[in-house]
Amino acid sequence: MKVLYRVFLIIVCACIIVTSVAAFKIYRLQQPFQAADVPEWKVKELSSQKWGLKSITDPERSTTAWIARPEGQKCDTLIIVGGVEEGENLLAGGGNWKYTGNTILMKQPVHSFLLRHHWKDWSLLDWWQIPEKIREETRHTLGALNALLNYVHGGTRSDPRFTDKVVLAGGSV
Q1: Could you report the average pLDDT of every consecutive run of 10 residues in the chain (173 residues)?
Q2: How far apart are CA 136 and CA 132, in angstroms?
Q3: What is the value of pTM for the model shown?
């Protein structure tokens, strides 16, 4: 009876420890990113309508951005629209376009990660590290988006395609 009680206590303590560690991992996942956490990416214009983005710190990470709608693409994207009047609420339906805007679609870098690391091949340890993987992929998405925004803002004076106004919106194509 004493042995059974001790086994029960060990199981309860192990469950409490595992639950506490899982809660801590989720807590760390929710922490805001610092500017120093965001990795550097670079933009290379492949054509006037298509750009390649690549991580400087991890060269195997890359993605693509299009100014026009990419044909046949079915992916989650980040959308940047330039040329919106400041202070207007477009979601309320009362806003007007002051300038013509360009829509830039960026395939999120997590897609290339998932192509390289298929979830069916993951072990139990890989699943345990999913919060860290999510945070790492979010860091790289922020890095790619930062590089794209800097590229658009850096070219506003010489490139007539862009204004100095940028609106970010999430969406799916």
Answers
A1: 91 96 88 89 87 89 74 56 52 53 69 69 82 85 85 65 63 52
A2: 6
A3: 0.68
